[in-house]
Design brief:
The complex is a heterodimer of chains A (about 120) and B (about 110).
Chain A (H helix, E strand, L loop, with lengths): L4 E3 L2 E4 L5 E6 L6 E7 L6 E7 L2 E5 L6 E5 L5 E5 L8 E8 L10 E2 L3 E5 L1
Parallel strand pairs in A: 2-11
Antiparallel strand pairs in A: 1-3, 3-8, 4-5, 4-9, 5-6, 7-8, 9-10, 9-11
Chain B lengths: L2 E4 L4 E4 L4 E3 L1 E4 L5 E7 L5 E7 L5 E4 L2 E4 L9 E3 L8 E8 L7 E3 L3 E6 L1
Parallel strand pairs in B: 2-12
Antiparallel strand pairs in B: 1-4, 3-9, 5-6, 5-10, 7-8, 8-9, 10-11, 10-12
The chains are: A mainly beta (about 120), B mainly beta (about 110).
Chain lengths: ~120, ~110
């Protein structure tokens, strides 16, 4: 049973560019959440997708957007990159169908460096 | 809003020492509580969890008890090993809603032989 997978593992971009990160949830999971983890900090919640809609959003600007596909996989898009966007981006999946006891499982992350 | 406060690190211990990492939280309702571990260069792994007051989560010799009266979820291990060296994150998942998880800032543990 494959866990949460993310691609790419590493990425280097320059300021002003746009980036797309991808996530495939654990088998049987229907909900995907995205987090940003700056160096030496805890993960910060960006947003969560369920049934192909954004359900909840953290304190991140509109430059951060996402999408969920019918197969539950998800993309995170960041426009007009800033140096401060350099971080580890984590995807987590869970299942709403098993009620509130379900745990989020994390992928290995995509490390983004903005120069 | 919800928040999680962890003791600041780094924490340096000798092998076989007793470990405590303090965690307190602020939340409305009845959140679920978690400890995640992050090894260097890797993502987060679930270490243990507790979903209601007085529950004790345990895994790999680590344990933590959900104390609603003190809003705490301290992580303990009786005898640490060098392989336990990692960053430990306390987290809560709000009750209801869409399961947003709030993390603490993490506590780095270094175990020396």
């Amino acid at each position: 049973d494959a866990g949460v997978t993310q691609s790419p593992t590493h990425l280097i971009k320059t300021r002003g560019q746009q980036v797309t990160l991808r996530c495939s949830p654990k088998s049987g999971h229907d909900t995907v959440s995205w987090y940003q983890q700056a160096l030496g900090q805890g993960p910060q919640f960006i947003f969560q997708y369920y049934e192909e809609e954004e359900r909840q959003r953290g304190n991140f600007p509109d430059r951060f957007s996402g999408h969920q596909f019918p197969n539950y996989s998800s993309e995170l898009n960041v426009n007009a990159l800033l140096l401060g966007d350099s971080a580890l981006y984590l995807c987590a999946s869970s299942s709403r169908q098993t009620h509130l006891g379900e745990t989020q499982y994390f992928g290995p992350g995509t490390r983004l460096l903005v120069l | 809003g919800n928040s999680v406060t962890q003791m600041e690190g780094p924490v340096t211990l000798s092998e076989e020492a007793f470990l405590t990492i303090n965690c307190t939280y602020t939340a409305t309702g009845y959140p679920s509580l978690f400890w995640y571990v992050q090894y260097p260069g890797e993502g987060l792994q679930l270490l243990l969890k507790a979903t209601k007051a007085d529950d004790k989560g345990s895994n790999k010799g680590f344990e933590a008890t959900y104390r609603k009266e003190t809003t705490s979820f301290h992580l303990e291990k009786g005898s640490v090993q060098v392989s336990d060296s990692a960053v430990y994150f306390c987290a809560l998942r709000e009750s209801g809603g869409y399961q947003k998880v709030t993390f603490g800032t993490g506590t780095k543990l270094q175990v020396i032989p």
